[in-house]
Every structure is written in C-alpha cells, then in structure tokens.
C-alpha cells in the first residue's frame, strides 16, 4: 500500500505542477493582454493630448507671433553687434600684439635690455625655486638679516638701473 500511496502522491504532484504551469501560462497571457490594452490606451491618450495641445498652440500662435518676430529681430541684432565687436576687438588685439612683439624683438637686440631680461628671469626663477624647495628661506632669520638682504637687493636693483640708464642709448640702434 505504501507503494500505491507513493504513486498517488507522485501523480498528484505531477498534476499540481501541470496545473501551476498552466496557471502561470494563463497569467502570462492575461498580463500580456492587459499590457497591450494599456499601451493602446496610453497611445490613444497621447494622441488626444497631442491634438488638444495643437489646438491651443494654433490659438496662441496668433497672439504670440508678433512677439516671436520681435524676439527674432532682437536676437539677430545682438548677434550682428556681437560679431562686429568681436571682429573689431580681434583686429585691435592682433595689431597691438604685432606691434608689441616687434618692439620686444627690437629692444632685445640691445645688450643692456637682453642682460636685464635674463637677470630678471633668473631672479624670479631663483626666488620661486627657493620658496618651492625650502619653504620660505627667510624663515628663522633675524630682523637685521632680513633688512640687510632687502637692502642688498634694493641696492643691486638701483645699481643695475643706473648702469642700464647710461648704457641703453649707447647700444640702441635708433641713436
């Protein structure tokens, strides 16, 4: 009997599984149909809303058209003005840059100016390198030491300016 009971249970399980599979299949079909109907209804609603919006736009278009034309006119004027200002600015920048470049090249032909340019670049590089690598190389110095360093730098700059002033004309190609 236990074998018959086992066969009956197995048979009932198979029937339950088939029924569950059938229910799942029917549920899928029902969900698919509902989704299809919902999509169709949504599409219809979108079409109705589109037609309604189009009616409102057509009504408002007559009211907004003069403002739209004025806006287009203003935007065109601003674009035109911006273009002309940009062209004028670019032309001015190119002209002034060209003049400045030729002036710099002319002045660098004078040995006094070239020497001062190199001296200035070397000084700036040294100071920046000192701050980058030593983190404030005046830190820990006494007030007297700082005053002496600043005085020495000031004296050096004054001496360089004095010598440059008197030698500039001697090497300048204009004179």
Automatic annotation (TrEMBL):
UniProt name for this protein: WGS project CCBQ000000000 data, contig 00015
Alphabetical keyword list: Membrane, Transmembrane, Transmembrane helix
A molecular function GO annotation: nascent polypeptide-associated complex binding
InterPro entries, sorted: OM14 (IPR039454), OM14_C (IPR039453)
UniProt keyword Membrane, yes or no: yes
Species per Swiss-Prot/TrEMBL record: Kluyveromyces dobzhanskii CBS 2104
Bias kind Basic and acidic residues: ranges: 1-10, 20-47
A single BP term in Gene Ontology: protein targeting to mitochondrion
Segments passing through the bilayer: 112-131, 146-168
Signal in keyword set: no
Region (Disordered): 1-47
UniProt domain Mitochondrial outer membrane protein OM14 C-terminal: residue ranges: 107-174
One term under GO cellular component: mitochondrial outer membrane
Recorded coiled-coil stretches: none
């Amino acid at each position: 009997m236990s074998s018959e009971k086992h066969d009956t249970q197995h048979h009932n399980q198979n029937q339950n599984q088939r029924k569950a599979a059938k229910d799942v299949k029917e549920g899928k079909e029902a969900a698919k149909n509902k989704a299809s109907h919902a999509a169709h209804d949504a599409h219809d609603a979108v079409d109705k809303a589109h037609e309604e919006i189009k009616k409102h736009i057509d009504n408002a278009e007559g009211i907004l058209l003069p403002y739209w034309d004025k806006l287009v006119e203003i935007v065109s004027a601003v674009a035109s003005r911006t273009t002309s200002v940009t062209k004028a600015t670019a032309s001015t920048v190119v002209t002034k840059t060209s003049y400045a470049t030729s002036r710099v090249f002319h002045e660098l032909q004078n040995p006094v100016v070239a020497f001062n340019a190199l001296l200035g670049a070397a000084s700036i590089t040294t100071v920046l390198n000192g701050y980058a690598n030593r983190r404030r190389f005046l830190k820990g110095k006494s007030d007297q030491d700082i005053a002496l360093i600043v005085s020495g730098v000031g004296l050096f700059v004054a001496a360089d300016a004095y010598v440059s002033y008197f030698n500039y004309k001697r090497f300048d190609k204009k004179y």
